[in-house]
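Hi Prof. W.,

I finally got the Metal dependent phosphohydrolase prediction working! I wasn't sure whether to trim anything, so I left the full sequence exactly as given:
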Amino acid sequence: MCAVKSPIPDNISEEYYQISAAILSSFPKYRPPVDLFRFRDDIAQLTPYSRKGQRLSNEQVEEVARLCDEGDLFVSRTDHPIYSQHIVKQLDLILVDRNLKESEVADICLRALALRFSDFADQPVRPVFETLYKDMMVFTEYLWQDRHRIKLFMRRLFREHTLAQHSLNTLAVGLWLFINSMGDGLKRRDLDRAALGFLLHDLGMARIPAFILSKTTPLKPEERDKIPLHPLSGIKTMHKLGLAFDEMRQAVLEHHERLDGSGYPQKLKGEQVSRIGRIAAVADSFSAMIAQRPHAPAKEPLVAAQELAADRNRYDTRYTSQLLTAFMTGAFSREGAATTALVLEAQPTRS
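And this is what came out:
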């Protein structure tokens, strides 16, 4: 929420949002979906300007833009649900808008990051990445202010499997494990880099043909052979963009490596697998297991955590046991597990 300029009365800041240009531009131009109010200096009060859904004339559209630029355009707190949906266009508002509930912030973050990720997966070029990176830094700043907020995202794990939703699930699970394992030694730079690595770990899957990802029948040998190549495809994209720092490289290349050497693409074994790689392996597998996929039904989170913890030869028990304990004790049960409906569809992922 923008700072309310003086001499606007204090009570107005409690009942109205001052609209930023970014939020206004996200509304339909001629039919804003909220009631609009203008501030009149002569009486120091807000007065109604237009009703939600009312068609504005060209002159009114120009006047609304001018009022916004001058800081004199507001929306009522009663339209908060609609307003909050549009903050995805300017995610850094979550850091200053004290009217937002934590559950609302989490939903807004998921919507924004899903859109940014999908855009980048479709067009993996530097300008598109910069937009994603900006929102990711808002997300990690939000977590840095209070690390316990990662639980908000663990309560919102998606149960349908698309590339964007799988990546967001892996981001949440991976960061929860990473933050717990780092304890007081966690540094902001580590958080930023780990978050980017976990979110983009499966980017190479965007290059796998959609018909392979959506098949409900067993893959043909030539189709199956394409799947193990996706970590190499992902890291190649990151290298082209100059983003192959350690955490990115480890998350992208090692999330399918297994401690017994049975994984791919490098057949790493034991201590050859990095800490980020071990966490990414658990987070990626868990996220795939709990979501409905074309070739496999979704498992309940507790069941998935139990199966991973039992697979001691392939997964690091330091992380699988943390995950299992959390679900056994109901650590993420508060507020339920409501998920955010995504605006954009993304490709399904076959893991």
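The chain is about 50% helix and 5% strand. Does that look reasonable to you?

Thanks,
D.
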